[in-house]
Amino acid sequence: MRLIIMSEEEVTWTGERKNKDLRTFPSCSSFDLLDPHDPVLSRLATQMFKRTNDYLQGEIATGQEHYDLLEEMNRMVITKYANLQSLAINVNRSLNESNGKYEIEVKPLLEQIEDIDIELSALEATAFRLDSYTKQLLGRFIELLGIDTHSTMM
After folding, report:
1. pLDDT at 13
2. How far apart (Å, rounded) are the C-alpha atoms in residues 38 and 36?
3. Which residues of the chain have pLDDT under 50?
4. Which residues, other chains included, contact 23 with Cβ-Cβ below 8 Å and sequence gap of 6+?
């Protein structure tokens, strides 16, 4: 914070002194309602101030529209994230239910199928051994009986 100390003379200006001081600076001008002015200059100044006002009002309105758009986008994003969160919760719940059903219902059935497959493989191996043994027995039986298999086929 900057503190400016002014003397009493600087603080209390009279109209005469103010106009005198302003006239000493060519870039400053004073406006007095009683002084006659150029009407074209007054009209142009009024138009300039009006257009400047319109421009600034447009800039403010545009800024406000941008903020309104950002606010609407934020609301939509919040809604979208809430929907995605709800969807993720539902997917997680469904996945947990599916995993539970798998563990309770499907996994025991798969284990039974695995056991049946192992037993079938063992049964198949036994059937092949039995078939091989039956062929050996048939061969010995024919050999013992002395049957000629070539002569009976013709």
Report:
1. 47
2. 7
3. 1-4, 6, 8-15, 18-19, 21-27, 154
4. 30
Alpha-carbon separation of residue 29 from 16, 24, 25, 96 (angstroms): 14, 10, 8, 82
Q: Which residue has the tokens 């709800």?
A: 86
Q: What are phi and psi of 104, to 5 degrees?
A: -85, -45
63-68 contacts at long range (C-beta below 8 A, 24 or more positions apart): none
CA distance 30 to 15: 11
CB-facing half-sphere around the CA of 36: CA atoms within 13 A = 0
What is d(CA 64, CA 70) in angstroms, rounded to the nearest whole number? 10
CA distance 106 to 95: 15
SS3 27: coil
pLDDT at 151 (0 to 100): 58
Cα-atom radius of gyration of the chain, to the nearest Å?
Answer: 54
Cα separation, 13 vs 19, whole angstroms: 10
Report pLDDT for 25.
47
* pLDDT at residue 11, as a whole number: 46
